């Protein structure tokens, strides 16, 4: 079977357009989905990952916010912030990056 070349940029654009339509439908119902990222430390790869997530959120119309902690932050502080975000009606997803 011959190899099939996939245009990743075109696929990503198509997926984002589909998600934009879904977000627009939710907005029409009065709900703007939101993403809050909790990042612990200063890992360069994590920063790139988060930057790309925020770019994608912006492209599809999602609300996004970043919550950063130093690498030596107390676990209780991080858990407390996640619990606050969990109670926030503007936030619907909370990925973490360490």
Folded structure, characterized:
- The structure is a single chain.
- The model has no long low-confidence stretch (mean pLDDT 93).
- It is built from three helices and three strands; from the N terminus they run H-E-H-E-H-E.
- It has a single domain, classed as Leucine Dehydrogenase, chain A, domain 1 (Rossmann fold, 3-Layer(aba) Sandwich).
- It is α/β, with parallel strands linked by helices and 98 residues long.
- The chain has a three-stranded parallel β-sheet with strand order 2-1-3, sandwiched between helices.
- It has helices at 8-28, 44-60, 75-87; strands at 34-40, 63-69, 96-97.
- The longest helix has 21 residues, at 8-28.
- The chain starts with 7 loop residues before the first helix and ends with a strand.
- Helix content is 52%, strand content 16%.
User: Percent range for helical residues?
Assistant: 40-55%
What does the largest sheet look like? 3 strands, parallel
- Second CATH tier, the architecture: 3-Layer(aba) Sandwich
By CATH, the superfamily comes out as Leucine Dehydrogenase, chain A, domain 1
Q: Supply the number of helical segments.
A: 3
Rg is 16 Å
CATH class: Alpha Beta
- The CATH topology is Rossmann fold
Mean pLDDT: 93
Number of domains: 1
The secondary-structure element order is HEHEHE
Which residues form runs of ≥5 with pLDDT under 50?
none
Straight-line N-to-C gap = 41 Å
Structural classification:
alpha/beta
Strand order of the largest sheet: 2-1-3
Number of E-type strands: 3
- Taken from the alpha-carbon principal axes, the silhouette is flat
Strand content: 15-25%
